[in-house]
Amino acid sequence: MGSVKALIESTTLTSIPPNYAYNTTSNTCNQQNAIDPVELEGQIPTIDYSMLVSGSGQQRSQCVQQVGEACRDWGFFYVINHGVPGEVMERMLGACGDFFDLREEEKREMEGEEVLDPIRCGTSFNAAVEQVFFWRDFLKVFVHPIFHSPDKPPGFSDISLNYSKKVRAVMLELLGAISESLGVDKCYIEKEMELEHGLQILAANLYPPCPQPELAMGMPPHSDHGLLTLLIENQGHGLQIHHNGMWIHVNNAPPSSFLVNIADHLEILSNGKYKSVVHRAVVNNKAARISVAMAHGPALDKVVEPAPELVKNGGYKAKYIGMKYKDYLASQQGSQLNGKSCLERLRIECEPSTK
Q1: Quick check: is 350 in a domain?
Q2: pLDDT attached to residue 309
Q3: Alpha helix (H) residue ranges in 40-197
Q4: Domain total for the chain?
Q5: pLDDT tops 60 at residue 129
Q6: Which structural domain range is residue 239 located in?
Q7: Other C-beta atoms lying within 10 Å of the C-beta of residue 332
Q8: Of 87, 91, 140, 151, nearest to 118 (Cα)?
Q9: Is 244 exposed, middle or buried (0-12, 13-18, 19+ CB in 10 A)?
Q10: Which of 21, 126, 281, 344 counts the most CB atoms within 10 A of its CB?
Q11: Is 155 domain-assigned?
Q12: Where in the numbering of this chain does the Fe2OG dioxygenase domain appear (predicted)?
C-alpha cells in the first residue's frame, strides 16, 4: 500500500478516496465526536523538570506532588526546562521530515513485516487488517536496548541517537518522581520494569494536508503501550485528548516542551491509580504535521502486573492480570486500534476489598 504522501503528490485531490472516510461512530470512544472539541488553554498541567534535578529539597518534594497530581487527574502534562536543547529537538523533527521526503522505493526497503521488527515504516496503523485507512505515514525504530536506525537520509542515525539518549534521561527522572508519588522508592519502577533492558521506540508520524479533514482521521482514539510517551511536534492543532467526557484540543504548548502521557503499563503497575488516557490525531487541509513520539516500555520479557506494594500492602485487590510486555505489544499493534480495548482484556472484574 502506498503512502498518503505519495497519494496527495500523485494527483490534485479535491476529495479523499472512500477507503479513508472514517466512521466516527464506529466505537464507543468515538461517540463523543458529535460534541465539538473544546479549548482549554493553560489547563493541562506543566511540570518544571529543573525542580526535580536541581531544586531544593522542598522544591523537589512539591514537584513530585505536582507530578502525582498530573498523573492522577490528567494522565497528560507538559515538561519544561528539561535540559534537552531546542535545536536538538528541531533537528530530530527535521530528520524525520527528511525521511518522509525519501523516494517511495527507498522507504519500501524499510517497511518491515512484523511488529517487533526494529525498523518499520508504512501508512495508516495496520493496513493489513483495516477496512478504513488513517491519514498518516509512520516510521518506527527501536533505539534501546539496542540502537537501530535507517541508513537514509544522511545524518539520521547520529541525530536520532543523540536525541534518544537525552530523552531517555528525562524519562528516567520522571519515572523516579512518579515512583515517589506512588509512595515507593525513587528507583522502584526503573528496577521492577528492568529498564536497563527496556524498550524505547522512536515513532515519527507524518499527517499530510487533507482535502476533506472533517471526513478523515490521522490516528483513531487509542492509549499507548508502555510506561511513558514523550512527544514533540512541528505544529499544534492536531492532537486531542479525551478528558472528563470531552475531546480537548492540545494547542499552544510551551516552547521546547515535551508533552508526556501515561501509557497502559503504568496504569497496570499502579493498579489503576494512574490511568492511561485515550487520545487521537486529527488532520487539516493547510499544512503537514510531523510528530515524534518516544515510547518507553519495560523489558520485552517482563511480565507487568500491579505492584505488590500498591496492592496487598495498601489493602487493595489487583485490578489487572499480568502479561509479558512483548505479548501485549504484539496484540495491540497487530490488530485494529480501538481505544483501550487491549488493556480492558486484562482488567479483573472483582468486588472491592477493604478499600
Answers
A1: no
A2: 87
A3: 50-53, 57-73, 86-100, 104-108, 156-181, 188-192
A4: 1
A5: yes
A6: 4-344
A7: 23
A8: 140
A9: exposed
A10: 281
A11: yes
A12: 197-298
